[in-house]
Amino acid sequence: MKFSPEKPALTGETLESLAARLQEQGEPAFRARQILEWVYKKRVTSWDEMTNLSKPLRTWLAGTFDFMPAELVLNKHSEDVTDKLLLELRDRSLIETVIIRAPQDGVGIDHSRKTICISTQVGCAMGCVFCASGLAGLKRDLSAGEIVAQLLHVCRSEDARTPRAHTEIASFDNIVVMGMGEPLANYDALIRALTIVNADWGLGFGARRITISTSGVVPKILKLAEEPLGFRLAISLHGATDAVREQIMPINRAYPLAKLLPAAKLFSEKHGRMITLEFILIENVNDSLEQARLLRDIALDLHAHVNLIPYNTVEGLPWKRPSLTRQDRFADILRAARISVTLRREKGHDIDAACGQLRLKTEKDRELAAP
Ligand code: SAH
Ligand code: SF4
């Protein structure tokens, strides 16, 4: 399930891999650092702006690497605090990247905390029954360069909005890997991309401000626990018993709670930081108070934060979000046990913020427009 582009993406190169390629060309290795500085710090958009490189080198680079493997096709501002970037890849696949602004008291929206939500696959193979991303299955994995490109596009769009006082740092506060796809099913590209995002020669973005969300691919959770960079982990639980989880998440058959919860515990102990349990509230599926009590026990045992997410309806799917009263009663059971819990009131509902929905709509429009 790989796409082989004509040229590798510059955004998928590490300092080492780029230096090795340059040395093959007879160039000194330090050129790699210069090039990456233009890309990630100065954020130029063409080879010709790299003025400390010779013209022949720039020509060779342009013939060898794809400067940016994703084009911005739509930047959708919502009425509230969420923006969506729709990006088109070289094979015309569409992916989306979301910017969520959390307003802070007393400051304008441009100074709010920004969380960026990135995708790791085109579609998803996991088949969770409530999710728009998985509806059409998996089209392909994203390359590391395509994952990093999403963040560079966000930087460019944010730079245009609020000209930086030349700080050269990324213009956002947190990254969540919660867009389209199952990140741990595209493990190597994910880790390579996040290594580039984290490196001082890359975006210089702290690993502890990056959260990877998984539906529960147990062997990869165990592998992630061994990574030198300490990324944060969120687990999409969505059911506090196998019976409930299995109804909505097929992965539970391969990795039931008896396997998933010990892996989560091990990760959390190794990492020394709280993990997050995500729990979408879906009416009459997992919103009973019995589920709330069982979720409470799991969260207490793992010493985990719980993120309750009222379900975002997906066109064509029958699931609904519970009433506000029901959501609060569920949350209260957790709060009463002094669990750290957030009940997300969906942001960006008006621009189809739930994962995969904007892409789905654009693909449908394309089909309708096709002769
Ligand atoms: N595949 C990974 C990450 C992407 S999905 C995972 O499943 O964790 C990110 C989060 O959005 C998951 O918790 C997922 O269950 C949730 N989600 C998917 N569809 C949703 C919807 N319609 N409404 C609310 N949350 C949804
Ligand atoms: Fe894939 Fe996550 Fe959607 Fe499940 S919830 S289908 S794992 S993207």
Task: Please give a structural write-up.
This protein is of the alpha/beta class and 371 residues long. The chain folds into two domains: 10-64, DNA polymerase, domain 1 (Orthogonal Bundle); 70-369, TIM Barrel (Alpha-Beta Barrel). 36% of the residues lie in helices and 18% in strands. The protein contains twelve helices and twelve strands. It has helices at 15-24, 30-40, 55-64, 144-161, 187-198, 218-225, 242-248, 251-254, 257-271, 289-302, 324-336, 357-369; strands at residues 70-77, 82-89, 94-102, 113-117, 121-123, 138-141, 174-177, 210-214, 232-236, 276-281, 305-310, 341-343. The chain has a ten-stranded mixed sheet with strand order 1-2-3-4-7-8-9-10-11-12, sandwiched between helices. Strand 10 (276-281), helix 10 (289-302) and strand 11 form a beta-alpha-beta unit. The longest helix is centred in the middle third of the chain and has 18 residues, at 144-161. The model is unreliable at 348-356 (pLDDT under 50). Bound molecules: S-adenosyl-L-homocysteine and iron/sulfur cluster (SF4). S-adenosyl-L-homocysteine (SAH) binds next to strand 8 and strand 10.
